[in-house]
Amino acid sequence: MSEAVKTLLLSLLLAVVLVINGTSAYEEQSYKALKFGNTLADYVKLTPDMRPFSNAFSICTWIKKLQRGSYPSWFSYASSTVDTEIWINDDGSYNWMFHNHNRNVGYLINIRMGEWYHYCFCWDLASRTAHIYHNGRESGYYSTPYGRRLTTDGFIVLGQDLSTFAGDFREYFSFGGELQKLNMYSKKLNTTEVREIYKAGRCSHIETRKGHRYSRQIKWERILEQERFGNVSIVDSCPLNEKLHHCHERVIELEEQLKEAQNNTQAGNEEPSSEDTTTITTVEDDGLSAELEELRLNLESTTNRLSETETRLEKAEEKLEKTETRLRKTGAQLDKSKKKVSTLKKMLKQANSDLENNVDLLRETRAALREKESELENLENSLCGANCFKASNSSYWDILYTSTFFNKVVTDELIGILNESWSQLENFKGSVINEGFIEFFKTNFDS
After folding, report:
1. Are 37 and 120 in contact, with CB atoms under 8 Å apart?
2. What residues have CB less than 8 Å from 364, skipping those under 6 apart?
């Protein structure tokens, strides 16, 4: 087995191990993002060797904007002679180079809060041109001075702007967003290369492939190892299905490379193989095929487990939707019940108010009745005049003013009612009891 075949087989094994047991160094870190706080104390400082970038560089990353502000800055490079050799903020308005060269593309691109977008900033001395890319498309460019190279004695700060070489930070430069897969290349990527990186996706491993492997001088996996200041944390940014998808693509790619290497090895054998060599090659190929088949089965098993998990998740989501529907219906019924209770409360309150009004009206009616009774009594007294029975200065003859006797004919029944002292009334049988009659008896017979 040739060295090329062994190398590819080892890579294939590593790719499947990535799926089944974990991830390799870069592949594991490529799934991670840096989340920055929004104060001037939240940043990462890098001190790489900048000499490879003096004549050309490309800065590419995925960015998630999470806060609004004046100048949220995620990349700043300052040297001992120029405080803003490179300065980039998160809305496309500042793509600064060499202190005073910039192209504002913020009004040309649509950056949405909380959504990932891909960004590349590419420059070289030969063309004296800096190009800005947003989601794989060129958004703008500008020229730089003739012969002007990037100074190489500075350092990089992520999450803030270097207002001075000493690191004079400002609150309004705080980034407060997320970065993923920030890499800096020592060459100017062309439009095709930028588009390929963007289309491969945020959770791919395209940066490790040929064409980028040697020019990628500042690597994301190394950035994640640097000291973080303030509120800067590493977060997992890629869902499992995307990880598995890209790993599956990687296995397919390695299989194709393996087949290509085998074909090249066989085509390079000019001398016919002996029987022993043929036997060894056959055994090696059979062994290789068996290993590939085993790896493929392992990958298929992992894919099936993921599919089962997704199915369970879908069922759980369906149950959740049904539960949410029931909750919405219950909530609607509860709202109706609340409205009914509220209406009943209003009715009860009105009834209590009406009852209080009726009680007050009853009191007023009673008072008015008493007044009427008093008025009637006074009226009765005024109508009776001298004929009414008076409690003061009265004699027993005044009883004849009552309705029992007044204007009545004297009878045995009436006489029987009177006191025995009134026996003399027998002599006046047939007389009408009137005022004169009564006054006569009061004058002559009252003792």
Report:
1. no
2. none
